[in-house]
Write a structure and sequence with these properties.
The chain contains 13 helices and nine strands. The chain is an alpha/beta fold. Helix 11 runs antiparallel to helix 13.
């Protein structure tokens, strides 16, 4: 994979080391959740869910034809169909803008950046809101995701975004080198979220900000997702943490001034809208992703929404400051 001139080297060398770290057990999740080789597990799951995105150039043409939009917003709406998409990124941007920030350009990274759609969209929205982003880094464990993201960034002429193929628990960036750390939808894919939060704290400068969404990763104390949910969100790929444990993880990582915003009503309505789009335009979505992927997206959204309604999952926005 390619990195931009002057950027920290990312990943093929780092990847094998991180694979070992990721296969060790987890702390702070509900029970002991086995963590097989996460590089292969996450790659296979997302490859099955979004195979067309690995052929981005052709998929992009199909998405633009369907949405009529060539910018990041139109593309993100479909390449993040299984997540909160643009609306989730807008919530993250709003949280960043609402907190006092440094009076200078900021450096940021997204942990679990996947194909980079959410990061590119968020950087553009921050700039539009008056937050200048000097450098941005997309951190993902799967080399193929980083390579696709790098191709997209090059095609869009982005010169300040770097893909780092690395574990979210061991990012190849210096301590206190960032102003913002973001996670938009990837929390359930981290087998050791406490370690991820500690790494975020290491990366942030004093006064820095961590902002992350919980889509299908946070549960009420003493609750577990249903077996129907697990049929679509398998153990070993999706990891959950109780609200009390998440709060404790943030405190142990050294974060202060933690804000938690309950997104339940918002998320229930959002997923209902996404399901409506998938059902009405099922043929078009299937033409882009394939029929099996279109159906899996539908089932994924349906299962998550039912857990929200039942109160077994807590869609949430967290904002935490680095003292």
């Amino acid at each position: 994979m390619s990195t931009e001139p002057g950027a920290p080297a990312g990943t093929r060398e780092t990847q094998e080391t991180q694979k070992t770290q990721e296969t060790q057990g987890t702390q702070g999740t509900q029970g002991t959740q086995a963590t097989p080789d996460q590089t292969g597990v996450q790659y296979r799951y997302h490859r099955d869910l979004f195979p067309a995105l690995h052929d981005w150039e052709n998929t992009e043409r199909a998405i633009v034809e369907f949405t009529g939009e060539q910018g990041p917003e139109g593309l993100l709406g479909l390449d993040q169909m299984g997540h909160f998409g643009p609306q989730g990124c807008d919530a993250v941007v709003g949280a960043v803008v609402a907190r006092p920030g440094p009076d200078r350009a900021v450096d940021l990274c997204e942990l679990g950046s996947g194909f980079g759609g959410a990061l590119r969209y968020t950087v553009d929205k921050l700039a539009a809101a008056g937050v200048e982003v000097r450098r941005s880094y997309g951190v993902d464990l799967v080399a193929e995701h980083c390579e696709v993201s790098a191709r997209i960034s090059r095609a869009q002429g982005r010169t300040t975004m770097t893909e780092l193929c690395a574990s979210a628990t061991a990012v190849p960036l210096p301590t206190a080198s960032l102003d913002l750390v973001l996670v938009t939808g990837s929390m359930p894919h981290f087998p050791d979220p406490g370690a991820v939060l500690r790494e975020a704290a290491r990366l942030l400068r004093p006064g820095g900000l961590l902002v992350f969404t919980e889509e299908v990763s946070l549960t009420p104390d003493g609750e577990e997702p249903s077996e129907a949910f697990r049929a679509i969100h398998p153990r070993g790929v999706f990891f959950t943490t109780s609200l009390t444990d998440r709060t404790d993880q943030l405190a142990r990582a050294g974060f202060g001034d933690v804000e938690r915003k309950d997104l339940t009503d918002w998320a229930v309505a959002l997923l209902a809208d996404r399901l409506k789009v998938v059902r009405i335009f099922r043929g078009s979505v299937a033409n882009i992703y394939g029929g099996a992927s279109a159906d899996l997206i539908r089932d994924t959204l349906t299962a998550a929404r039912e857990e929200y309604l039942a109160g077994r999952l807590l869609p949430t926005l967290f904002v935490a400051g680095k003292p």
